[in-house]
Amino acid sequence: MVYLTRKAEFSAAHYYHNPNFSTRKNRRIFGKCNNRNGHGHNYRLEVTVKGEVDPESGFVVDLKKLKELMNSEVIDALDHRHLNKEIPEFQNCIPTTENVAIAIWNRLQSKLRIAQLHRVRLYETPDLFVDFYGEA
Amino acid sequence: MRAHLTRRYWFSASHRLHCSTMSPKRNVQTYGKCNNIHGHGHDYFIEVTVVGPVNSETGMICNLADLDTFVNGTVIERFDHENLNMLPEFSEVVPTTENLCVEIFNILNGGFHHAAIEKVRIEETSQNSFEYTGE
User: Fold this and answer.
1) CB atoms B64 and A128 under 8 Å
2) Which of A45, B44, B45, B99 could cross-link to B123 by cystine, CB 3.0-4.6 Å?
């Protein structure tokens, strides 16, 4: 089994707000992230797939196809977007780094046929990242 | 959904690797330049990983502000700009980064109650890093 990781970047806006919380509770839990005018990040994404090395090609995965899938399902959809206002997954779900990582996993997992998805690592800032392995 | 969140911190500290039960010659053989009697220092980068279910109301494993407050209060303020050899934690234990990693994991694992501490990873320099998961 060999693991291969491909990186990508996208920039997007978001804010944290739970409509079931009071104004004060939203502010207490989410702090500055609760600013309803939004703020943004340069997200760095690492997608790791795993598999056996194909004896003919020497590949775990055709990197060009993985890159195309990451671009079409994730980067093209999320880059320079407002996650709360424009992305269906976040109509009723707060776009925390945890939930964005899970959404990216789901987008890739549903379309990835050429290799097995192992991990989605999403950096929101250089000092904060989330790993999701598809665990229930 | 169970996810893993990692937050990165740093502090600067000095240390000297020296084992009092070894001869001077063996200390030099074992620790090399790190045995310099005057000590030396590093910028230690600390990665703290918590693991747990993502709370459906907040979208979070735990509140980052709680994690930051705890790590800053118990680890960063404790070790930043200190000589590790002078601290009681390392009076009987050589302050290698292995031992520092275990010490920090135990501080966090014993006191942080908002999420499970899965791993502490320390970069002593850009060339070497250490991980401890409580094994």
Assistant:
1) yes
2) B45
